[in-house]
Amino acid sequence: MNAVFPGSFDPITSGHMDVLTRASRIFDHVTVTVMHNARKQGKHLFDLEERLDILREATAHLPNVAVDSFGGLLVDYMRQQQKSIIIRGLRAVSDYEYELQIAHLNRQIGEVETVFIMAATRWSFVSSTMVREIASYGGDISEMVPRASAAALRRKFAEVYERRAAQNG
Asked: What is any one of the record's Gene Ontology cellular component terms (predicted)?
């Protein structure tokens, strides 16, 4: 069985990697798909190509994982790829309520199933938004993201990290 793990991955976090690694043990093949929306152009920290590069590096050790992107409805992508299983990670009950609605819609309009994988407790508080915020102040995000994301964040906020390093001596 093949599955798709969609998201914006801006950037991919350790929580995403936890869900993805576990999904790669359950499914024969998993495609991590960066969903991009033209209306959100310029609202991401990393552009599409940067996110794809980060994902390729972060998932290189997972032989049954591929990286792709798509602009449009996820169900259209699923149809094009002839896949019928969506992987979604959950951190908390609040995620479930939102994801349940999306899962029902995807099933209704695209005849696809959604499999929920709970993120490990240690990652239940980590989100891409929080990681970007911490990195924007030069904070230590090394445990919250894979190396590829950490390096990309340090490059994006190089001045902040350099200033913070100089202050801390």
From this structure: cytoplasm
